[in-house]
Each structure stands twice: as C-alpha cells, then as structure tokens.
Specification:
By secondary structure, the chain is an alpha+beta fold. It has one domain. 27% of the residues lie in helices and 27% in strands. A 6-stranded antiparallel beta sheet has the order 1-2-3-6-5-4. The N terminus is likely disordered.
C-alpha cells in the first residue's frame, strides 16, 4: 500500500469516527412511566396537530446519525400508540397514502418488544406521517384489530 492510499484511508476512518461521535439515542420511552410516555407523545404531536383521541399508552425511540458538522444529521423515529377500542379510525380518517412512496418495513436498531413484526406490518394499512409528526418520510400503520398505531419517520 503506497503512502497516498494510507493517507486516504486514514482520513476516511477519522472522518467516519468524527461524524459518528454524537450519534445515538435522542428520545427513548424505556425509562419513563405510563403518564410520562403519554405526556411526551402529546407534546410531540401537539405543536403540529390536535391529538385525535385519548392515548392509553405510547412507546417511542428516536436515534440520530451524524453530528451536523460534516453534513446534516439524520433522525429515525419509531412509535407505538395504543388507543381505546374503535378510536384508531379517528387517527387515519383524513390521512393520505405515505409520501415519497415509503412503504418498506423498518424497525429500530435496538430491538423493542412494543414494535411490530414484519409479518404483522404486511397486513396493515399505511398512511402519511406529516399530519401528526411533521415529516414527509415514513409511514403511520394502523392496526384496527388491536387498536394500535405504529409510526416510523425519518429525515434525509
């Protein structure tokens, strides 16, 4: 390996480690009690839209990739919202299909027991996330049978 190649590799390694220095979890419901989780979810949705029905429970995690110094940071958000029987329709009644054709399954890097499985995902109707979460990329999946809403959004 010549000196130029070694230099280029060294710069790439340093750049990657520098970019990832402030990656990690931005928001995580795992350390919160039920009321804190519900309150946080209302605070996430509240500035963008009214909450369509009472939230019985919520779980969420948001991770950040990049530090914003060399290019922008990207955020990946996942949430599960439990509502009263029959109330899930209020969440989806005026929503469009997902923007940008985003219909692929995604799950948090850190496994969460509240997140849906790929098999379950394939049976759910998908909607856009902009109305409640302010992001165009992602989907809101509605599970009518279990009165749950699953949300995946991301920036790019």
């Amino acid at each position: 390996m010549n000196a130029v190649t070694k230099f280029v590799i060294a710069v790439m390694v340093l750049s990657l480690s520098f970019c990832r220095s402030s990656e990690g979890i931005v928001l995580d419901s795992s350390g919160e009690n039920l009321q804190e989780r519900i309150s946080t979810m209302k605070k996430i949705i509240g500035p963008i839209s009214s909450v369509p029905s009472k939230i019985l429970d919520a779980h969420y995690i948001e991770t950040k990739i990049g530090n914003g110094r060399i290019g922008p940071s990207d955020y990946y958000f996942y949430a599960s919202i439990k509502v009263s029987k029959g109330e899930v329709k209020k969440w989806s009644q005026n929503l469009k299909e997902p923007y940008n054709g985003v219909t692929q399954f995604s799950s948090p890097e850190i496994s969460k027991n509240w997140w849906l499985t790929k098999k379950k995902f394939t049976n759910l109707k998908l909607y856009e996330t902009k109305t409640y979460f302010g992001r165009y990329n992602g989907w809101l999946a509605v599970d009518d049978e279990n009165d749950e809403i699953f949300v995946h959004t991301y920036t790019q």
